[in-house]
Amino acid sequence: MGLISSQKQSIASAEDNNSGSNSPKKVGSNSFIHEETFTTTSNIFSKQKSSKSEDSEPFVPVKHPLGKDSCSRMSPLARSLGRPLVDISNNIGHANSNQKHTPCEKKRFGRKSSISPFKRPRNSRFITPLTSTISLLPTGPAALKMSEGSCYKMKVSTRYPFEAERKTVKEFFRGPPCYQKLLEHVPDQVKFMNADSAEKYMFCDKSGSDVTGREAFHHMLSKSGASTLNASKEWVANHYKWIVWKLACYERCYPVEASGRYLTVSNVIEELKYRYEREVNHGHRSAVKRIVEGDASPASMMVLCISAIRSYPEPKLETRHPMPSHEDAKKISGSNWFENSNVGKVELTDGWYSLDALLDVPLSKQLLAGKLFVGQKLRVWGAGLSGWAGPISPLEGSTEVHLLCHINGTYRACWADRLGFCKGLGSPLAFRCIKGGGGMVPRTLVGVTRIYPVLYKERLNNGGSVVRSEKMEAKMVQLYNQRRSMIAEGVMSEFQKDIDCPHRKSEDSEEGAKILKILETAAEPEVLMAAMSSEQLTYFATYQAKQEAMRQSDMQKKIEKAIENAGLSGRDVTPFLRVRVVGLTSKYCHRKGCMRDGLITIWNPTGRQQSELAEGQAYTVTGLKALNSDSDTIYLHARGSTTSWQPLSPLATECFEPFFTPRKSVSLSNLGEVPLAREFDIAAVVVYVGEVYTSGHQKRQWVFVTDGSISGPELHSEGSADCLLAVSFCLPDTDNDSSALINRNLEGSTVGFCNLVKRSRDKMNHLWVAEATENSTYLTSYDFPGCSHLKEAASCARKWAKISYLTIQKLRERVLIIIGGCDS
């Protein structure tokens, strides 16, 4: 799979809850423990003298995916998986590593210190309470009472912040644990503990008469000075659960080093104090807490641990999904289909809090196969959040809020990776490892082999759609505007005929209406107006202006209604750009094979993308979404505004195998070397342009060309030389336009054709055949970018045409015979 470990256990690492540095890399079999997985504790990894002063790093694994009760019910699928994992990452090298920090948390306002807006009284004898020698803070029993019933922040742990550098789990244990048969001294309650049972774990003294549970730890924490409003029973129960589960895993994974010294009352209470100090007094928050509180994006890269498997999917999952529509493709982050599918559900934790996660179908299959298990660390990138309506507390335990994980953004993490948000950018996912229908691809490396012209997709009122080239779209816009103008002119003409209708009277224009009526019946209205007072003239002018405004408003409404009735109220047109790419293969990779092809459709491409994307350039691309497809080519969609294309430096590109063959003009004499269904470019002389005809729901037109590469006696041996190329142009018959696709005036001209697709040769008529798709284009000028390779071939064809008039006429006659034979 390349994303999830095929081993049965992994080891969790010491984790600073805020962030950690992680990148996808191949982890050998020696990086996983055979039986148990675990998480680290901050109480154990400090270089200080005390072994109880470290940060709590939350992870613990269980022996089996179902925990304590599933030891004898392991799926046969899970037992058979022992193959090593493949490398899913592209390594660019240090020369191209991006060290920019990607923020995982939104900017929080209100945390900057500011000067008080209140002025100090002018009385110099005034003494503020903070400068007084009299303490206003309670001491003794009053202080304890205050800490229990208020939000006052009192220091409860003397070991944070740390004075010495912390050890990582890798440094402390000197490597991952291996399988050991030394668990006979570990109690069964610890040996088979899972995250759910850890919350109910009770510490017993040597006599067994006295037990200590989470309620007792809540009381001990409050006695240490913690506020009961912050350290509530729910807060203590949550952290008690993760601390106990983590320490129990240390006991299981390192029985010799632990010997019962990790899972102790003193370690648990020190962990609780440490967590209170960091979260309450210092305001530090874990990844899950920041996400559910709305201060961090769930799409940020983070390392989480599987703490429980809530539900397995059905054994038979549908592997195919309908191809998303254009609207679905535009909603790159949409994941509503998770909720309606029978998929797996797991609990993920950052060691401090947990959140249920829904897995997409490919990940659910990995869960069924046993490649996802309790205690395993995952690097999640580009995830979504379902059921979240606003900031909530992670202690609320809402059953409707889920993290949405997909296989293209979920990878196995190294056992020593820290839990929480990751610093910097992760390594890109190898293009060959992208799964169709596997959701968002956070980052990958591609090489651009073809850039097609911008196309325009219009959604019709009947639910259909049509794709047009830039030329056809410009023509359609002109025709659309002409139709609207004709309708508007017709409405205005009819409105002018009714201009003599009686005017509507307005309550505030009665005087003006009377004056107008008098002037209309007067023999000499100019004389009357000259005798009017200024007030009467104002009434009359105001009335006329209002009447004109009413006429204009009525006319505008009639025009809009007529345009709407004609179906011309608006057009839903979206531009898009197609880019053909291939995956990059490292020169140092032992796994050699064919490069995987892909076709990326960029909806609403930006001007920068249209002008700066270049063929033959390698890019780091973010924000792609893979679609389902049965072909070897993977199809991806993206939005121009949310997709980033960062070119690789020449030094970084040299680390990969060559992937690009520059465009060149193909001659008819060498067309046989072009594979079937492969694209090619050619510059040729137009011999004949056929008539437009309708076939099904499409308009078609044939164009016959030659380039002079086959000349001499071969042209005179009728039917023996393949010196003609028949190009088929087609367009959906949705426009009321009978004009030709190719103008007949091009006959005798030299034209360059790009992105033609080779079809099967017509052996009967000895013709090469090609199809012009919506990605194809033709041109008569070669000064545009991407057309220079046709310039020399077009010049040669033009020179040949000037001295081969009789030859072109013979070829034209041959075409007419072929067409006549087809018509008969």
List keywords for this structure.
824 residues, alpha+beta, ten-stranded mixed beta sheet, nine-stranded mixed beta sheet, 21 helices, 27 strands, flat
Description:
With 824 residues, the chain is an alpha+beta fold. The protein is built from 21 helices and 27 strands. The strands form 4 sheets. Strands 12, 13, 14, 15, 16, 17, 18, 19, 20 and 21 form a 10-stranded mixed sheet that branches. Strands 1, 4, 5, 6, 7, 8, 9, 10 and 11 form a 9-stranded mixed sheet that branches. Helix 6 (214-223) crosses helix 7. It is flat, with a radius of gyration of 38 Å. Mean pLDDT is 77; it is low at 1-87, 90-139, 141-147, 319-340 and 503-509.
Topology, please?
Elements lengths: L18 E2 L55 H4 L61 H9 L19 H5 L14 H4 L3 H4 L4 E2 L6 E2 L1 H10 L9 H21 L1 H4 L6 H17 L5 H6 L9 E10 L14 H5 L14 E5 L4 E6 L1 H8 L8 E4 L3 E3 L15 E4 L4 E3 L7 E3 L16 E3 L2 E8 L3 E5 L5 E4 L1 H28 L12 H12 L3 H7 L2 H32 L6 E12 L13 E7 L3 H6 L5 E5 L1 E3 L7 E6 L4 E4 L2 H4 L25 E11 L3 E3 L2 E9 L6 H4 L8 E8 L17 E9 L9 E12 L11 H12 L2 H19 L1
Parallel strand pairs: 1-11, 6-9, 17-20, 25-27
Antiparallel strand pairs: 2-3, 4-5, 4-7, 4-11, 5-6, 7-10, 8-9, 12-19, 13-16, 13-18, 14-15, 14-16, 16-17, 18-21, 19-20, 22-24, 22-26, 23-24, 24-25, 26-27
Helix pairs in contact: 6-7, 7-9, 13-16, 14-15, 14-16
